[in-house]
Write a structure and sequence with these properties.
heterodimer; A: mainly alpha; 17 helices; globular; disordered C terminus; B: mainly alpha; 2 helices; 54% helix; disordered N terminus
């Protein structure tokens, strides 16, 4: 496996990486709060706003692959700089766009690309290259927990900004906050590679991609991450409607959101830390299986605010806890030379799952009048993801044998 | 098998563990207090209503 000697101090990697992910994941997480003010002020439909958000998610997934390639080749620092600038420009555009198409271009494509350049795959590349393998999963857990904290923190902060400054100025304030990513990126600037400390690049991008996509364990990880996206986004987007259908007050759903955010921080950290002592495939299998068990239990017991809160807390623990072990396994298997790019591809699979979770949730609800079928699909997919993660081989790939037995 | 506590990741080979127990405990306490503080923001009645209105797209 390709390894490097430590070049940036551990505390610096963690502090700057965590702060960047806190900002990049957090800012975007509260965008739903702008739906009403923007659509009312501009006279646009909800569909226009939602379309831009859908484009943003796809843009994040697609650009993630390319951002990863560039980060692997030229360093994460430059990608983070561009990502921070794009984030600020996208937010300014979100505030000032006069038409739906300009809004889609800035809020959808620009901010999606900015997220690709400032979130996990890029920061994890720096962690991988600068933190020893013995602590890597833990460090990834710290960064993921920071992202989870950002999501948890920024929703009320953005609500306060809108109430205090108005929706437009609040976005400009966030654009300024996004620029903080630039000085933080300096903390992740890696020294110019020398023969003694550079990550070995024995493969071209094409060779690395061919190797990964032909490797069974990589395929299985992508399947698992697809399921993660499907479940998380289906529950996140459609659960409020489900709870409303069940006759519960909207405040129950709000509290559930807060509980998911709170327990998500603990879950992501714990998953990363556990990855140092347990097989990551077992952690991933357990997470997906527990999600299915949680959903089955939630659907089986009489629904009440308390059952919703318990479900939200359990799902919170399991929410983004897949992120550190999945990425750590990719680094373990393929090394670090093309890690951000491969992480980008795995994340792309996650985003396709996210899209399917939102879309199928809506389509099947419209056709059947309930979410039952989608819940059953989410349960079945959880079991499937648990099973496909079990045979994942975590050992470093043997490149002398280009067709390893998987 | 590694037996370190969750908040005590194993030191890298050749690197001594520099973090003291009390510092880790203090860090954990600060983190929990911070999380509780943010959680309390969610439970403010006005904000809860705003969130409830917008919830479908907040995730």
């Amino acid at each position: 496996m390709n390894t490097t000697s430590s070049k940036i101090p551990l505390w610096q990697v963690l502090a700057c990486g965590a702060a960047i992910v806190t900002l990049s994941m957090g800012i975007r997480h509260g965008f739903g709060l702008w739906l009403q003010p923007i659509t009312q002020a501009q006279g646009w439909t909800r569909e226009s706003f939602s379309f831009a958000m859908a484009i943003q998610n796809l843009s994040w997934g697609v650009f993630g692959v390319f951002a990863g390639m560039v980060a692997d080749r030229f360093g994460a620092f430059k990608v983070l700089l561009v990502g921070g600038v794009l984030y600020a420009l996208g937010l300014v555009g979100m505030a000032l766009s006069p038409t739906v198409w300009a809004f889609t271009l800035t809020t959808g494509i620009l901010i999606g690309a900015a997220q690709a350049g400032t979130t996990y795959a890029i920061v994890y590349g720096v962690i991988g290259r600068n933190i020893a393998a013995e602590r890597r999963s833990w460090a990834m857990g710290v960064a993921a927990a920071a992202g989870s904290f950002g999501q948890f923190l920024m929703v009320p902060v953005e609500g306060w900004l809108i109430a205090s400054l108005g929706w437009q100025t609040a976005l400009l304030a966030l654009a300024t906050a996004a620029l903080i990513i630039l000085p933080l990126a300096v903390g992740l600037r890696e020294p110019v590679a020398t023969p003694g400390n550079a990550v070995k690049r024995d493969q071209t991008i094409l060779q690395a991609l061919t190797e990964a996509f032909r490797y069974r364990s990589f395929q299985l990880l992508m399947v698992g991450y697809f399921v993660c996206g499907f479940q998380v986004v289906f529950i996140g987007v459609h659960m409020p409607s489900y709870l409303k259908d069940q006759g519960l007050a909207p405040q129950v759903a709000s509290t559930a959101l807060a509980l998911i955010g709170l327990f998500n921080v603990f879950g992501t950290y714990a998953a990363g830390a556990l990855g140092q002592r347990l097989a990551k495939r077992h952690i991933l299998a357990a997470i997906y299986l527990l999600r299915s068990i949680a959903i089955v239990t939630f659907l089986s017991v009489p629904i009440s605010p308390m059952s919703v809160y318990v479900f939200a807390a359990v799902m919170g623990v399991l929410w983004l806890s897949t992120v550190p072990p999945t990425n750590a396994v990719v680094a373990q298997i393929f090394g670090l030379a093309h890690f951000s790019m491969l992480g980008g591809f795995v994340f792309f699979s996650h985003q396709i799952g996210s899209f399917m979770g939102v879309w199928l949730g809506g389509v099947l609800y419209d056709r059947t009048g309930s979410y039952d079928i989608v819940w059953y699909i989410a349960i079945a997919l959880g079991v499937l993801a648990a099973l496909v993660n079990l045979p994942v081989r975590e050992q470093s790939i043997q490149r002398d044998d280009l067709r390893p037995a998987t | 098998m590694n037996t370190h506590h969750l908040t005590n990741p194993p030191p890298a080979a050749g690197q001594p563990a520099r973090t003291h127990g009390w510092a880790r405990g203090l860090s954990a306490l600060v983190a929990v207090l911070l999380l509780m503080g943010v959680f309390s923001l969610y439970l403010q009645p006005d904000f809860l209503l705003t969130l409830a209105d917008q919830l479908w797209a907040c995730f």
